[in-house]
Structures are given as C-alpha cells and as structure tokens.
Amino acid sequence: RRDLLNKVAQLGLEMTEAPAPPLAPPEPAPVAADRKVRVLAAEDNKTNQLVFSKMVADLPIELRFANNGREAVEAYEQIAPDIIFMDISMPEMDGKEATRRIREIEMRDQRRRTPICALTAHAMSGDDTEILACGIDFYLTKPLRKAAIHQMIIENALGTAIALLINEPFAGRG
Fold first, then answer.
1. H or E element at residue 21
2. What pLDDT is stored for residue 152 in this prediction?
3. In the chain, fewer beta carbons within 10 Å around the N or the C end?
4. Which are the contacts of 146, defined by CB distance < 8 A and separation ≥ 6?
C-alpha cells in the first residue's frame, strides 16, 4: 500500500486528507478481483457530473450517478457501491439525509459500512462538524481536484481490488 501511495506521490498527485472524522473510517468493502470497483456519485448538477466522470475516466471503476439523495439511497440498495461521493445540497433529499438513510439500511441489513465522501461547496468553519455528524466519513470541497478524488478511491476502495489481484491482504486506511 505504501509503495502504491509513493508511486502516486511520484506522479505529482497531491496527497491531502480531510480532518479526522469522529469515528474510525470504515474498512473498504471486499471487491472481487473479477469486477470493477463500484463508485456511486450523488450529484444533481449535470455539469458537475460530466466533470466528475472525466476526472475518474482513467480509473478501473464502474461509475453510476444519482441525481438527488432519494436516487442515491435507491442506487445504494441496487448496486452495493464500494464508495459513495455525496453532494450535500440536492433536491428532494439532501446528502446528509441520504447518508443517514444509508447508515440505517447498513444497520438494518447488517451490511458493511460503505465509505461516504461528501462533495460540498460549504467550506466555512464548523460545516465539517455538521457534515461528519450525519455519518459521512470524509469530505472534499468544491471545486474538486482530480488528485483528491483519485486518492479517495485508491485509499478507500481501489486498494482492496489491487490487493485481491496480487493476493495480499489489504488493511484499509491506517
């Protein structure tokens, strides 16, 4: 894992991390070596969807978009994503409520906790506390940076897939 992160750093990708959440981050969901990493991105803005899809186009992932929080909860139940990127301000159901509902489903169905990363334009002091309190694990502020998105996927979902391909255990973030 360290070699992978060093290689990413050598490529000139900035390695930054959000402030530590109040709870330990979830361990990545196991990913079968014969499938791509499933990424769910809840984003109501079509331009932002296009930008996000271009930023991750070179990663071995299966990307699905949800246009609002309600669709994000439905997609979560349908595809069991390995990681979720969640816009906070969306119509019908915002990202915080969608996250709460996903966490309820995980508890109800005894599912493994899925890493959820907020995508937010809210960068004011104190916003991070409210965002993380609803069950979100990490957050990235807009405008998004490709390196930060890649890092989030590599550290929280892709690492498991790579470990399976090389038959080594993957301990997740640490």
1. none
2. 94
3. C
4. 55
Could you give the angle at the alpha carbon of 173 between the alpha carbons of 135 and 108, nearest 5°?
35
Q: What is the DSSP letter of 136?
A: -
Kindly report whether the global pTM for this prediction surpasses the value 0.85.
no
How far is residue 55's CA from residue 43's CA, in Å, rounded to a whole number?
14
**In angstroms, rounded to a whole number, what is the distance separating the alpha carbons of residues 26 and 6?**
22
The Cα 98–Cα 103 span in angstroms is 9
Which residue, among 110, 104, 103, has the nearest Cα to 21 in the 3D structure? 103
Q: Identify whether the C-beta of residue 128 lies closer than 8 Å to the C-beta of residue 18.
A: yes
CB of 105 closer than 8 Å to CB of 73: yes
What pLDDT, in 10s, does the model give residues 68-115? 999 999 999 999 999 999 999 999 999 999 999 999 999 999 999 999
For 165, the token pair is 């391909």
Give the containing element (helix H, strand E) for 64.
strand 61-66
The C-alpha atoms of residue 46 and residue 156 are separated, in whole angstroms, by 25
The DSSP symbol for 117 reads E
